[in-house]
Write a structure and sequence with these properties.
Helix content is 28%, strand content 24%. It is an alpha+beta fold.
């Protein structure tokens, strides 16, 4: 259970005759074990098949999960670094040669489009250039 104390201002005359009397608001966050519904002691994070999970568990359930996974973890290869972000992935832009980039920029200027002299070309511009004859 986590307790958050947050000061608030109260000008209610029924609470006090003093105007704008400071009071404290207490917020308690109770984390429940996702398996049993009892009190949870920790949040366990794990990943499987590219999907990340988290589950709130009591100490006994967390230990049971760790013991269940231990034989697999003992034989698995540990991967360093961060887990990939979940959700829809943006396609990676294909590499464009410097000559192609110059040609695309020249075409864009000739057709009245604004384009920077340096840097990465926007995907929409490359698609427009590739679809110009279609």
């Amino acid at each position: 259970m986590r307790t958050i104390l947050r000061p608030i201002r109260c000008a209610d005359e029924q609470v006090s005759r003093k105007e704008d009397r400071p009071v404290v608001q207490r917020i308690q966050i109770v984390v429940e074990d996702d398996l049993t519904g009892g009190r949870a002691d920790e949040t366990v994070f794990f990943a499987l098949d590219g999907q990340r999970y988290e589950i709130d568990l009591a100490e006994a359930n967390a230990e049971s999960l760790r013991q269940s996974l231990a034989p697999f973890m003992a034989r698995a290869r540990r991967v360093r670094g961060r887990l990939p972000k979940s959700g829809p992935h943006r396609p990676v832009q294909a590499t464009i040669s410097a000559a192609d980039a110059q040609e695309i920029r020249a075409w864009a200027r000739a057709t009245g489009r604004k384009v920077s002299a340096r840097g990465r070309l926007p995907q929409w511009l490359i698609q427009a250039y590739n679809g110009r004859a279609a």
